């Protein structure tokens, strides 16, 4: 009886591996920004905390014609604060 369960488990693992080989763009965990990906996933760098994040999730700021993206509103406020001190 246990042998059957092991067989089922093996078949399941093989099936999972096969699935991941056939459809590599399924999970987001192993996703890398290759050339074929959508442009929504462009990674930009936060100039304040220097963290990379997806552009679509960023806080947009137009700073004298420069497009700047921040990871959070806190970083945007910090950036503006630093700008105003200069
Ligand atoms: Zn930040």
Describe this structure in words.
This protein is α+β, with helices and mostly antiparallel strands and 86 residues long. It is built from 2 helices and 4 strands. It has one domain. Helices cover 40% and strands 19% of the residues. Strands 1-2 form a two-stranded antiparallel ribbon. Strands 3-4 form a two-stranded antiparallel ribbon. Strand 3 and strand 4 form a beta hairpin. The chain is rod-shaped, with a radius of gyration of 22 Å. The model has no long low-confidence stretch (mean pLDDT 85). The structure holds zinc ion (ZN). The site of zinc ion has 8 residues, from loops.
Helices, by number, come to 2
- Beta content: 15-25%
Biggest sheet strand order reads: 1-2
The radius of gyration is 22 Å
Proportion of residues in helical segments: 25-40%
Runs in which pLDDT lies below 50 for 5 or more consecutive residues are: none
Secondary-structure element pattern, one letter each = HEEEEH
Main β-sheet: number of strands, strand sense, barrel status?
2 strands, antiparallel
The tally of beta strands, per DSSP, is 4
Ligand list: zinc ion
What is the average of the pLDDT values?
Answer: 85
Shape: rod-shaped
* Separation, N- and C-terminal Cα atoms: 75 Å
**Which structural class do the helices and strands define?**
alpha+beta
Number of domains: 1
């Amino acid at each position: 009886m246990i042998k059957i369960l092991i067989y089922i488990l093996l078949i399941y693992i093989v099936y999972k591996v096969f699935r991941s080989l056939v459809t590599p763009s399924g999970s987001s965990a192993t996703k890398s920004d290759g050339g074929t990906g959508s442009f929504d996933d462009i990674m930009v760098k936060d100039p304040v905390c220097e963290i990379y994040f997806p552009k679509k999730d960023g806080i947009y700021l137009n700073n004298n014609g420069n497009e700047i993206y921040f990871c959070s509103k806190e970083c945007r406020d910090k950036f503006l604060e630093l700008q105003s001190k200069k």
